[in-house]
């Protein structure tokens, strides 16, 4: 009896998760060039090119370094329309920059850090995609 219960509940759940992972989510991608080192979730990211992807079906925004050595993902929420632009907002404290939020068109991440200073810098890409 126990094995039938296991088979009837757990196997379909595993198959559903596998199908969701294997299913390609429609993603939009833009590439941004960040001219300075910055911090995300306690990790230092070097200046350079980063791809920002929005998986609309999953409501997920992802930031990935050009060499794919660093990837960060966040659940997004609705935001005022941003005309297809991708915006990375940074909190700046002296020479240190910390990623504050990521906006991809009509969605934005929650605030990623508590803002300690008043200086903000942003990097925006509007037209070219990858």
In short:
The chain is of the alpha+beta class and 130 residues long. 16% of the residues lie in helices and 48% in strands. The longest helix is centred in the first third of the chain and has 21 residues.
Helix content: 10-25%
| Cα gyration radius (Å) | 18 Å
| Total domain units | 1
Describe the oligomeric state of these chains in a short phrase: single chain
Distance between the termini: 53 Å
β content, as a range? over 45%
Widest beta sheet: strand line-up:
1-4-5-6-9-8-7-10
String of helices and strands: HEEEEEEEEEE
Query: Mean pLDDT, nearest integer?
Result: 80
Give the low-pLDDT segments: 15-24
Number of helical regions: 1
Please tell me what the overall shape is. globular
Largest sheet: 8 strands, antiparallel
Alpha-beta classification: alpha+beta
Could you give the count of β-strands?
10
